[in-house]
Amino acid sequence: MTVAAETRRAVRASPFLRDALRAGCVNYTAAARFLDLGDEEAVAAALRRYAEDLPDYERPATEGRVRVNMRSGLGPTDDPGEALLRVADTLLAPGTGDLTGITATGDGVDPRTLGYVLARLDAEGVAVGAAGATDGVLLVAVNRRDGPDAIRFVEDALG
Prior knowledge:
The protein is an alpha+beta fold. The chain has helices spanning about 5-10, 15-25, 30-35, 40-55, 110-125, 145-159, and strands at about 65-75, 85, 90-95, 100-105, 130-135, 135-145.
């Protein structure tokens, strides 16, 4: 495998580095050191060439108005009709649980948007207990105490 091919594979395995390359905010030598693929100069050169081929970074864009809501008391349920989120055999619905659900609905809300929201919540130190998205809606479930902060972070991420 060539240095260029190995470098591209390693970058794809580290999505944060790919995003940083797309945003144009990478110290190529430090990135080459992080990837630890061998000759730092050759890897840094491969990173520069790869960055030129990548599309510019753009945060996910929603179209029009996005509504963000918070629902406290999410917990497990056996009633599929009440569930806001299903992951395998686990259903979460409003009730007596200790999670707060943050939902965002609107045009342009999709799984890519969810990835951006999850990264923002992680950066703010908010642990996510469950999450899901489809075209037009996303939901993240956080600890009840984190709910007020989480809704602000989600609104900011989508704003």
